[in-house]
Design a protein that fits this description.
There is one protein chain. With 219 residues, the protein is of the alpha+beta class. Helices cover 39% and strands 25% of the residues. It is built from six helices and eight strands, in the order H-E-H-E-E-E-E-H-E-H-H-E-E-H. Strands 1-2-3-4-8-7-5-6 form an eight-stranded antiparallel sheet. The model has no long low-confidence stretch (mean pLDDT 82).
Length: 219
């Protein structure tokens, strides 16, 4: 009987905590939707409830979209930026600790790649979940090679994509701070930490991608 009473007490406590927290959770959700709508209106974009692009298929960077992360989109905006189609995604993904599973939020901006090419990704150098056991490709431009860990099938494919014009821009551009950049076969994308409602970060990242796109188009 004592065990049953304790078990029931735990259940009741959980219900009480849930009832207390529910209004706060609902308020946060409403505030996020309001901020999303305000951002869409400011940029002239739309909240897009259609199926989200398959990120793993469009940006197939081996090992970076590990199934264990459980990555999923929680919001999607679509529209135009400087006359180019753009998709903005808010993504949630998990990381495993010794006895915990922690959820994180990041934002991805995606634009078309002007010329199809090899799949390449850029992350910050040093040890990280993205760089673990991944070869660091070199493009032969020291300021760039020292700033990024380059994920690609080979140095040659990295150099085909990261031309001197592209590498020169990225090596010196402060907008790459805290960004991961992805060159999919037909898409360009960049991510940064946090929610999609960071208007300045979204605008800066979209501008960065289009500046990269212009340099990729120069052959």
């Amino acid at each position: 009987m004592v065990i049953v009473a304790i078990f029931l007490g735990i259940i009741l406590l959980g219900l009480v905590i849930g009832l207390v927290m529910r209004p706060k959770v609902q308020a946060r959700a409403r505030a996020h939707v309001d901020a999303l709508q305000a951002m869409a209106a400011s940029f002239g974009w739309q909240i897009d409830r259609r199926a989200v692009p398959d990120i793993r298929a469009r940006l197939p960077i081996g090992g970076m979209w590990d199934e264990d992360t459980g990555i999923r989109a929680t919001a999607q905006l679509t529209g135009q930026w400087r006359g180019v189609p753009v998709v903005a995604l808010q993504l949630a993904y998990g990381t495993e600790g010794l006895a915990t599973h922690t959820w994180h939020t990041m934002t991805m901006i995606m634009v078309p790649r002007p010329v199809p090419g090899p799949v390449v990704a850029l992350t910050a150098p040093g040890m990280s979940w993205a760089n673990f056991l991944a070869s660091d490709r070199q493009v032969g431009y020291p300021p760039f090679d020292g700033r990024f860990h380059v994920h690609a099938k080979s140095d040659e494919e990295a150099r085909v994509t990261l031309t001197p014009a592209v590498a020169g821009l990225l090596a010196a551009d402060p907008r790459t701070q805290d960004r991961m950049l992805f060159f999919g076969e037909r898409d360009l994308a960049a991510t940064f930490p946090g929610a999609i409602t960071q208007q300045q970060a979204v605008a800066q990242t979209a501008d960065l991608l289009l500046d990269v796109s212009q340099r990729l188009a120069l052959r």
